[in-house]
Amino acid sequence: MAQPLRHAFSILSAITLLCAASPARAQRIGHEVGNFFPDVELPTLDGKQTLRLSSFRGQRLLLIEFASW
Amino acid sequence: MPVWHAATEGLREAEELIVIGITQEQHPERCRLFAQWQGFEWPILWDPLNLTGASAVPSVLAVDEFGVIRKARLDSRRVEDELIGEFLAAAFEAPREEAPGPRVLRSMLGPEVDSTGLESAYARLLWGGSSSFDAAIGAIENHGLDANAADAASLFRAGVAYRMRHDSDRGRPTDFQRALDLWSAALHRDPNQYIWRRRIQQYGPRLDKPYPFYDWVARAQADLRARGTEPVALRVPLTGAELAQPSNQYPIRQDGSQAPDPQRRISADGERLIAIETAAAVHTASAGARVRQRASVRVHLALHPDAEADVHWTNEAGPTVVWVAVPQGWQIERNLFELPLPEGALTGEVRLLDFELSPPEGWEGPAKVRGYALYFVCEGAGGECLYRRQDFVVPISG
Predict the structure, then answer these.
(1) Do residues B236 and B217 touch, judged by C-beta distance below 8 A?
(2) Cα end-to-end distance, chain A, whole Å
(3) B16 touches chain A (CB under 8 A)
(4) Which 273-332 residues of chain B touch chain A by CB within 8 A?
């Protein structure tokens, strides 16, 4: 029984390592490293413009989420 | 955030980096004033509905050319190594899948789009102006806002919608309280959502404030005027709650004032020349705290002259006063409030008052706080001027 378990564990470890070694994979939307940042379309503060984050694809962004308080 | 503005100036000018701000505030002009004061030159997006799903701010993220977050919780003291050395210098592989697009789009305002969907309701709130708030709230309500059934984000966003209508020319007397109740329901579902918690605390009691929210506004306005720049105008007036400093003291009674009309001698405002709107923001500790803390409450009153009847305050006759009687065992700093008089003999502004109460130990609600306002008003510019009383009741949930 110990042998098949060890074998299964090795396969699981290999899959885990493979996933960890694939930094290009972004499967989730969220705020953590490796996530896609949610693609939102929002007005600017003065309401005069609307920007969609995906319109900046191809450029590197620094996103600052903040409040004035 | 000013530190990030300075730290990224060269990178922005060299077009190596795009900087975009996103603010989760309810009132966009306040953040606009802050950005004007600080001289921010990058675009700032307004996300009152929390569409990004951020649970706390500030948060600074480096996002690659594919939309993938490569650095989170960036430290402004480590721009050289974290941002330039590790992020901008790195090569990233394209992800195997495409990121999903936005669910809320400005194009949803178009007539061909299903106007009953939640997403199009949110689009109306963001881009449709106050004339579309009723329709947006109707659509949101039709989707169901039962606190047990609706998802927490929908409850929060519905609260934002009500507060937006409250601040517009379409406001209804119950809108602010409905917003507070929906935010509270959302927070009880997800106590770790600090964007939602702050939305209540902004209007809440001092005991619940992590910091003063908008005490910087007067300094910003003065600095801008000293520079010869007209500050961004604030469309929604700041309430006392939004300027108040945090405190760890319960309200301590400071005056020995007497009720101004104990015998009800002043005629009641039966025609409702003034509409009194009430709301109560309750301490948020009950959401998430293992041991319930003693509650405290910030009560908001707004006195609206009837614009259709051309009702005005007549300021030369005297100030508006408000008397508040708290239930047995409750504490209040003072019972009698005199509202400041503006310049001008006749004015038509909405008069605001907010004050704090603390219930007795162990109170879990509900309760009712009663009071009345005494005011001088005139019907029309040349019409009859009257001294009137109006009683009010503020329901407070636990």
Answers:
(1) no
(2) 61
(3) yes
(4) none
The answer to whether B64 contacts chain A (CB < 8 Å) is yes
- A14 to chain B, minimum CA–CA distance in Å? 20
A34 reaches B (C-beta below 8 A): yes
Per-domain boundaries in chain B = 2-88, 106-194, 247-396
Partners of residue B83 in chain A, C-beta under 8 Å: 62
Contacts of A26 in chain B (CB under 8 A): 66-68, 95, 97, 99
Selected for mutation to probe chain B from A32, A36, A42 (highest B CB count within 10 Å) is: A42
Here the ipTM equals 0.90
CATH of B2-88 given 3.20.20.140, 3.40.50.300, 3.40.30.10, 3.90.79.10: 3.40.30.10
Tens of each residue's pLDDT in chain B, 398 residues: 677 877 788 888 888 899 999 999 999 999 999 999 999 999 999 999 999 999 999 999 999 999 999 999 998 888 888 888 899 999 999 999 988 999 999 999 877 777 778 999 999 999 999 999 999 999 999 988 876 677 999 999 999 999 999 999 999 999 999 999 999 999 999 999 999 999 999 999 998 999 999 999 999 999 999 999 999 999 999 999 999 999 887 767 766 789 999 999 999 999 999 999 999 999 888 776 544 556 789 999 999 999 899 999 999 999 999 999 998 889 998 999 999 999 998 999 999 999 999 998 888 778 999 999 999 999 876 788 999 999 999 999 87
**CATH level 3 topology of B247-396:** Immunoglobulin-like (2.60.40)
